[in-house]
Design a protein that fits this description.
With 448 residues, the chain is of the alpha/beta class. Helices cover 40% and strands 14% of the residues. Helix 7 packs across helix 8.
């Protein structure tokens, strides 16, 4: 229906209230939206390299042949960020130039299969940057936020959890109270082990005696310390707050089974990564012996890793890092699959995910029925300077942006003020943004 026909219809109604100007305008917008539009073609693929929070955040920018139509995507594999950049620029970019920008699933399959060897973190993150940028373009083209393109909201916002940590148990509890005062109903708690390099917390300045000079971690000491933390948290914080904890795969499989049983009485919201991806068969033993809710997945790259855990109902929360799995397109399918098995989503949302990645997370959160909880990391002033339009957090809920696409504009001039390496010190600086080693007292490397 064109404008002329609309006006004729309005005239035929005798100017009655049946066809108001507002209704006519709405009908015209609908007609314009469904009218055949030229398919935008990919003109250029770029990578913005920035680190406004001291963590390397590669962001893909795709430009089309239509003036002003472009999009951004998160490709954040922080520990190997300098490898993602050439993966996009030298391999995916030349392959994409001239291709249609509106065939997102087809493009994903094309990129995924073109490397022959698949499911590696560098390739997956490179593909994710492209995939999310194409969704951003699609939203901008439609004049809608991405969540509308996926069927609209099933909830208003995403319930989040914050990170409470400390070298001592009292510090953790104080930190948890501060999160609760801000309206958060879910809090992850992590405490240091004296003299050791714990995950998510510090163990103090005095190192334990070891046969080497690297950071030390002993699983048994950590487990004893964590159990005391949970007991004290329940005494002082009560039963209303939902407690979470991340093991970060730093224990043996048999320790993981026993640990999962021991924490059952503390009624955690979930117990994260008790096992590494190499040991996922052990989840069957955990499920057989206790009802502790298990979250797993931030290290997963391949459907061969997460599919068995979902199908056999061996986990309660799938916790994949969206860019690590290849972007919004595969994670949307993963969530739909998980819904059939009553496994809920809890997408990875740390500081080494760009605000665009957080926008993709919260988009999935509000459109997927089987959402569980969302990890939240605050956006500092520098991040908000570079990424304008970050998802908003209020009273422990994260809200998607209502602007078209992800609703985020990247200030590239500001991004250039924070190049890769900005704010890095010590081991992270020496290792080009990567992580170092952690060993047991005797020198054995542990998983981290």
């Amino acid at each position: 229906m064109n404008r002329r026909n609309l006006l004729r219809m309005a005239a035929g109604l005798g100017g009655s209230a049946l066809m108001t100007k507002r209704e006519a305008a709405a009908q015209e917008r609908i007609a314009r939206a469904v009218r055949a539009m030229p398919s935008p073609k990919i003109k250029d693929v770029q990578v913005i390299q920035t680190a406004p929070a001291g963590l390397r955040l590669p962001v893909v920018k795709i430009l089309t042949d239509q003036d002003g139509l472009y999009g951004y995507g998160c490709a954040c594999f922080t520990q190997r960020a300098d490898l993602v950049v050439p993966a996009v620029e030298k391999y995916l970019g030349p392959f994409l130039i001239g291709k249609p920008a509106d065939r997102i699933d087809d493009t994903w399959q094309m990129l995924y299969n073109s490397s022959y060897w698949r499911n590696g973190p560098v390739l997956n993150n490179a593909i994710s940057g492209v995939d999310q940028a194409l969704w951003d373009i699609k939203g901008r083209q439609a004049g809608m936020p991405v969540y509308q393109l996926l069927g609209g909201k099933v909830r208003e916002a995403a319930d989040c959890y914050g990170h409470a940590s400390g070298t001592e148990i009292a510090e953790v509890i104080d930190s948890a109270r501060r999160w609760m005062e801000r309206g958060f109903r879910h809090v992850r708690v992590q405490v240091g082990v004296p003299g050791m390099a714990g995950y998510g917390s510090r163990g103090g300045t005095t190192a334990v005696k070891a046969l080497h000079s690297a950071p030390v971690f002993e699983p048994a000491a950590y487990i004893r310390r964590a159990l005391k933390l949970f007991e004290e948290c329940r005494k002082q914080l009560g039963d209303e707050v939902e407690l979470l904890h991340d093991v970060h795969e730093r224990v043996t499989p048999t320790q993981a089974v026993q640990f999962s049983k021991d924490v059952e009485k503390f009624h955690l919201f979930f117990f994260e990564d008790p096992l590494s991806p190499e040991d996922i068969a052990w989840f069957r033993l955990i499920r057989q012996q206790c009802a502790t809710p298990i979250a797993m997945g931030e290290l997963f790259n391949s459907p061969h890793e997460w599919s068995p855990l979902i199908i056999e109902r061996l986990i309660d929360y799938i916790r994949v890092h969206v860019s690590q799995a290849g972007g919004l397109t595969p994670c949307r399918k993963m969530a739909a699959m998980a819904e059939h098995f009553n496994v809920r989503t809890a997408w990875h949302g740390p500081g080494d995910v760009s605000p665009i990645g957080h926008a993709a997370n919260v988009t999935l959160d509000v459109v997927c029925y089987n959402f569980g909880v969302q990890e939240y990391s605050p956006f500092n002033e520098a991040l908000q300077e570079v990424f304008q339009g970050c998802p908003a957090q209020k009273d422990g809920y994260l809200y998607p942006n209502e602007a078209p696409g992800w609703g985020i504009e990247v200030n590239e001039k500001a991004a250039a003020k924070y190049p890769f390496g900005y704010g890095e010190q010590g081991e992270r600086k020496r290792l080009n943004g990567g992580w170092g080693e952690v060993r047991k007292r005797d020198g054995q490397i542990i998983k981290q």
